[in-house]
Amino acid sequence: MPQLLKPNELSDSYYLDNFNCLIDFVFAHYETLLCDEEKHFYAQFTKLPENAQRLFIRLLSRNGDYARTTKLNYSEIPDLKKALEKLTASGFITPAHIDQIADWQSLFTRKELSGTLALPSSQIASLNPQAVATLLTTSDLFGTSPLDSLLESEHIVQINFQECYTIFRLLFFGNLHQDLSTFVLRDLGVRKFESYLTDTDNLPFQCRKQIDAHLLYYRCVDGYEFAEDTGAASLIELHAQLPEKSKSDTTLNRKIDRFTNRIARQLERENHLQDAVRIYRSNIQPPARERIARIEATIGNESAAFELCQQIEKNPADAEEKEFSQEFAARLAKRVGIDYYRPEKNKPAEIQLELPNSNLPVEFIAALHFAKSGKCFYVENSLVTGIFGLAIWDIIFAPIPGAFYHPFQSAPADFYESDFYHARESLFKQRFIDFKKGCLSKVVLTHFHNKSGIRNPLVQWPYLNRYLITLALKKIPLTDWLKLFEYLLKDIRHHRSGLPDLINFPDTGRYSLLEVKGPGDRLQKNQLRWMQFFKDSNIDHAVVNVAYLDEATSRDSETETLLTEHSIHFE
DNA sequence: ACAAGAGATACAGAC
DNA sequence: GTTGGGTGGG
DNA sequence: GTCTGTATCTCTCCCACCCAAC
Ligand SMILES: [Mn+2]
Ligand SMILES: [Mn+2]
Fold it and tell me: Of A26, A273, A381, A471, whose CB count within 10 A is highest?
């Protein structure tokens, strides 16, 4: 009998349904890539009675490999004992072998442990897991250990098949950071996703080797913290364990490269420069080459550093890397006393303001100042990026092969890839023609209305409202929008950030983009690049330097009124 | 959109 | 006694 | 007294609870 549900209400079998949805999808589309144990896991799970299924899912979504059965209490699982028996009989859980339990502190409270060990709880806190285990399992003259009393009325079970579930999650989501809560958040209406069709003919995993590589990568990431604490040798070993980069899996390659950079950077901090350089060299992702150049310069290898800078300049991975290579080369040349061309520095226009410190974020202080003679909004990336996202909404979610492979994506799989545009070129070309015919406002406002709250990699809904959008579309000329869009499209990954804090629409007309800087703050590289773009595109812009007239005071009533008028709310 | 970018803030060292 | 971080849950 | 590099902090639904600390 189907339940009648209010829009944001969960059915009483929600997590069972969600889990089934996940594993059924994986089994249906990836059966040939599953190993015997995984297939066994799936087959056995589907044979379990519903109550046992429920309990197992509950156990899987807890932390840790073990659970105390006395701590389990679920109103939707009436016969816990029977469910536990079923799970034990089918091998989904097993009574724990106490000598395999390494971490007793996460299973029992300090108080419980200090009681049985007859030690002050402060001392328990300072013991390492190994020590606790030893104390607990050491028998006295009568052959009894503290553990015996602790476990008198306890059953600890080991939760099995966690690895299988991990694989299923990986295959379903394509990553390990999403889990069953993703379903819940969608069904509660917290996160809305576009309702595209998933392309089951072009799923991301093609062979078992690829799956294992992903899994290994995640294992290495898990091991990072320990390796960092253990020292350089562990970090080097960790790097050696990383999966080989594959020919086709650019997503995984990118992850490996980022992680590699993280390892090498830590080696730098620990002063293992040779190893850091060696590891950076295996890597294309910025800032690997930059780091190598810096290290070479530090250890007195200026010529090697200089040469690398020239290589980078010839073939930069992105604007940031290119700028680095030019500036650093010039710096090196100067240091060695060689004459060398230095790119002229862009100094954006500046506005100096002296304002009372009303104890608000400096962006609001500045915005309220400009609001006295116009309309001013604190938008950062959200306006330009958001308008663009609304303007090309249907292109972002167009059914390109392989773009969508599960229902919880906020972007197509290739959104940040350099060929995102080319895979949709005809759609974009047509859309830009339409814009030139004057349909920009209509497309944007239609999507703003129809897609409200739905996730889109370019749209941050909380910052957008109809008034702001309408005003921006009216005050910013189409030619400027087209230039902005074109610039965004050149490198979406990097160009979606660094936009100025404020957009100002003075009463006298026009508009300008303002980056606010309080005392001690300075322009970031990407912010400066946007300023350069505005200059090249003839778009009003400035850096607003705010100095405070006084110490921070509490907000006066005048400020409160302004805040209310601008729908700004704090604490 | 893979414990991340995305921005602000703090401080040290170079010059 | 209070808080605040961690965790589980819808 | 600037300019640079680097490290560090804050934040992702939101609520109830439990436990460990200041
Ligand atoms: Mn900002
Ligand atoms: Mn700012």
Answer: A26
Q: Is strand B within 7 Å of residue A250 (CB)?
A: no
Q: Count of residues for chain A? A: 571
What lies within 8 Å, CB to CB, of A37 at 6+ separation is: A164
Residues 419-478 of chain A in contact with strand B via CB under 7 angstroms: 455, 457
CA dist A273 and A224 (Å) reads 19
Residues 55-74/A with CB within 7 Å of nucleic chain C are 58, 61-64, 74
A424: Cα within 13 Å, side-chain hemisphere: 24
Distance CA A93, CA A59 (A): 9
A205-336 is classed in which CATH architecture?
Alpha Horseshoe (1.25)
Model-level ipTM above the cut of 0.85: yes
Q: What is the pLDDT of residue A117?
A: 87
Query: Mean pLDDT across the stretch A86-103?
Result: 94
Q: Nearest residue to nucleotide B8 when comparing alpha carbons to its C1'? A: A521
The residues facing A514 across adjacent strands are A502, A542
CA-to-C1' distance for A520 and B12, Å?
A: 15
Extract long-range pairs of A259-263: CB within 8 Å, 24+ residues apart. Answer: A259/A217, A259/A220, A259/A221, A259/A224, A260/A285, A260/A288, A261/A285, A261/A287, A261/A288, A261/A291, A262/A224, A263/A224, A263/A227, A263/A235, A263/A238, A263/A239
Tell me the residue ranges of DSSP E strands in A203-271. Answer: none
**Digit-coded pLDDT (tens) for A305-340:** 999 999 999 999 999 999 999 999 999 998 888 888
Give the model's pLDDT for residue A552.
66
Give me chain A's average pLDDT, please: 93
Rounded to the nearest whole angstrom, what is the distance from the C-alpha of residue A266 to the centroid of ligand 2?
A: 29
What's the CA A527/C1' B7 distance, rounded, in angstroms? 11
CA of A38 to C1' of B10 (A): 51
Residue spans per domain, chain A:
14-173, 205-336, 350-565
Q: What is the pTM assigned to this prediction?
A: 0.94
Query: What gap in Å lies between CA A416 and CA A420, rounded to an integer?
Result: 7
Strand D atom within 7 Å of A125 CB: yes
Query: How far away, in angstroms, is A94 Cα from ligand 1 center?
Result: 53
Residue A571 — pLDDT band, cuts 50, 70, 90?
A: very low
Element (H, E) at A158: strand A156-159
Asked if A10 CB < 7 A from strand C, the reply is: yes
Q: Are the C-beta atoms of A324 and A518 separated by less than 8 Å?
A: no
